Amino acid sequence: MATIGDVARAAGVSLSTVSYVISGKRPISQPTRERVERAIRELAFHPHAGAQALASARSNVIALMVPFRPGINVAIIMEFVAGVVTAARAFDHDVLLLTQEDIQEIDRVAARSLADAVIVMDVESEDPRLPSLRALDRPAVLIGVPEDTSGLACVDLDFAAAGRLATRTLIDAGHRRVALIGASRERFERRANYAVRMRDGVVEQAARSGLEVHVLPCEPTYAGGVDAVDQLLAEDPGVTGLVVHNEAALAGVVDALDRAGRPVPAGMSVVAINAANIAEGLRHPVDSITVPGHDIGGIAVQMAMARLQQDSPGETRLVAPTLTPHGSVAPPR
Amino acid sequence: MATIGDVARAAGVSLSTVSYVISGKRPISQPTRERVERAIRELAFHPHAGAQALASARSNVIALMVPFRPGINVAIIMEFVAGVVTAARAFDHDVLLLTQEDIQEIDRVAARSLADAVIVMDVESEDPRLPSLRALDRPAVLIGVPEDTSGLACVDLDFAAAGRLATRTLIDAGHRRVALIGASRERFERRANYAVRMRDGVVEQAARSGLEVHVLPCEPTYAGGVDAVDQLLAEDPGVTGLVVHNEAALAGVVDALDRAGRPVPAGMSVVAINAANIAEGLRHPVDSITVPGHDIGGIAVQMAMARLQQDSPGETRLVAPTLTPHGSVAPPR
DNA sequence: TCCGTATATCGAAGCGCTTCGAAATCACCA
DNA sequence: TGGTGATTTCGAAGCGCTTCGATATACGGA
């Protein structure tokens, strides 16, 4: 494996000149630079990551903490991850994978100077990792918005806006009785921020039109969706517009509506919030606000990089939702 | 951030003694070791990863190349990843994430000494990465089995055995007409090894009982499953046992059988191969051979670690399948 | 008592890079 | 022609750790 010394010898310059050619931190004359670059190419030189990290106090690695606990929405997680990796590479950084099982991993990675910055996914309202993250001596970016964001950098979909958008779509189509099939009761009880913000958005938008919303928590399974529909139609058969914020239950919801003689969209208009590539796999495709996981992951990296340049104050960035129609919203009959 | 020098001073020993206490590569007397360990604890010392990598020529990092291309089975990917990370941490290694977009990433990571070993997921029969992997100057483990495994370390589910097991389950229940709804035509045409091996296992097991198998490729969507069932029932209504090796289509298959008056299991017995946590989300749960992604990921790490100790010859490890019944197999009516 | 052997610890070199200050070179003008 | 400042390159120190050979100490046997 060639070293920077080999390159220097081949190009007939000093070690430091090669280093400056690579980093661009000092001006190097055109001819010298060309000789060095040629030597680098010919020797297929790649700087030793450890040596670089040691000398420069920068690892060029971002740590990414991914939730692996069961029940998590895998598709969307993968999108985030892909977005983070892609963006990180664009900044010439690599991504180190951490699991959520052990909070201490954050500190270990920082203390060992393994990573320059940390991105944490799936942050909850009262996340146990918040103290560590606040105390961390390097940039941290949270995907998800905790209750108290002071001093933190956060990014997420604007779930309140998504709730409003979904609801407005139904109302604009003429629906006057609207329901929300949301996250599981457990999520609401733990005050999972996305679930709460979403619900508040739906309720608020409906209130603007003088409407009330029937809110049903729902287990994140096919059966959960079926149960929620059964319950809804029993308690409130006049509902004609439905917002579904529960990806795993969506198929069950659609099927149950079908079997109840309320097929989408003739018998029930539906708007869902979910990961991309879900809406198409259903018996009846559903208008969707997809979580732009790739974009959000990219923004998280940008925020981390910015904070690596200069430490910035806390900031929460909420990405605006967009709705993709699939013909599941029709006027009420 | 404390350095090993701080620890040495605090414990009143030399630098090298601290290093040997940490690595255990030379015997250190009990009292000395205790003093050093106390100093480490009190200073919260963590060795600098870059310095360690530089001095020891070992980064303690495994690179993991994950497929992010669309259409991939996300759930199972996540299981692999989780298995790899968990196992890696058990060996005191971290995991660096690479995407499949760029083959050169493997070489870059190796040349920079960023990773000690590489694990590559979703390897195809004629994978474009095979040359790089064969030429690599450090251990590589493939998840998936290419056509020519010479000199390579591979691990995967034993799909042929899975095919035999699924088929035997149906035959033992009394079924004499059996079909396979498999991967997409495109997968078969590209000779995706898992698709082919699975099919061969099914066909072989059936042949042992003197039976033939109706094999249908199937698009990996809900609609694909519906289409496959329609086609099957049209062409071969006498089929009573079905093996489904197409996770995304499974829901469509089950629903289509339902609507065709052939509900599972009364009208059709079904065994599926899929990721865990899929079978339960269906209208009718289905007997499943789940891909043990977590285990396979762990084995991949073990293989990499073993090859870090001493280079071993090529080896392919196939994990035996296990079937979890969910009541979707009944005697033919 | 002295030597050989085993055990425990030390010291220094070196891993491959970055970075700072200084040296060398050059152009230009007085 | 010498001096000045700007431009380009060099040299050496140092980042924090590992590891090899050497030293120091202890112990048992002759």
Automatic annotation (TrEMBL), chains A, B:
Give the encoding gene's name: lacI
Entry-linked CDD domains: HTH_LacI (cd01392)
Which UniProt keywords are present, listed alphabetically? DNA-binding, Transcription, Transcription regulation
Q: What is this protein called?
A: LacI family transcriptional regulator
Q: Boundaries of each HTH lacI-type domain copy?
A: 2-56
| Listed GO MF terms | DNA-binding transcription factor activity; transcription cis-regulatory region binding
